[in-house]
Amino acid sequence: MALPAAVWALCVGSLVLPPCSAFFPNFWARILTLAWSSYTHQDITEEAILNVTREILMSRPNRWGRTLPEQEPQEPLTAGDLFGSYYGDQEAVSMKAFWQAVSEVVRANAHMDFRSEMQSNPVYHFDSERIQGARDLLRWRWIQTLDSIRARDYQGAREGLGYLLHSLQDFYSHSNWVEMGHTEVNSDLLNSADQLEPVAAEDVQTCRECWNFSCKNNILEDVNSKKLLTTGYFGTDPKKPPGKCSHGGILDQSRSLSARGGINKDSTSPLFSPHHYLHGDAARLATAATVALLRDLRDTAGVTDFLRLMNVGRNSALVFVIDTTGSMFEEITAARLRALSIIQERQGTLDEPTTYVLVPFHDPAVGPLQETEDPDVFMRFLEDLTALGGGDEPEMCLTALQMALIHSPPQSEIYVFTDASPKDRHLQSAVEGLTVEKRIKVTFLLTEDTSRAGWRRRRRREVLSPDRFSIYRSLSALSGGLTVFTTDRDIQQVSSIVQDSTLPAKVTLFHVQTGPSSVSPHSFHVDSSVKNVTVHIAGSLKAFVLHSPSGQEQSFLEKNGHLAQMETFEGLTRIRLLPPVSPGQWIIRAETQENITLNVIGQSSVDFLYHFAVAVNSTHPGLSRVEGSPVAGVPTFLVLTVTGLSASHKVSFSHVTLLSARGESLLGAQLSSSSSSPGEFVSQLPALPTVPFSVRLTGTDGQGNVLERASGEMVQATHVQLQVLSLPQLAPGTTSTVWFDIYNRGPARTFVLTAADDRGFLKHKGRERLSVAQDGTVRSWVDLDTPGGAQVGSAATLSLSVESEDKRDANFAVLHLSVVNTDPDLEPPSCSPLQVRGSCPALPSACANASWSASLLLSDRGRSGLGRVQLGRGRGRLVLRGASGAQEEHLQEGQGPLLLGNSSAWAAVQAAYTSSCCSTEAELLLWDRAGNLQRCSVSTPHLQVARAFLHAAAWPTVFALSCFGVLLH
Question: What is the pTM of this model?
Answer without folding.
Answer: 0.88
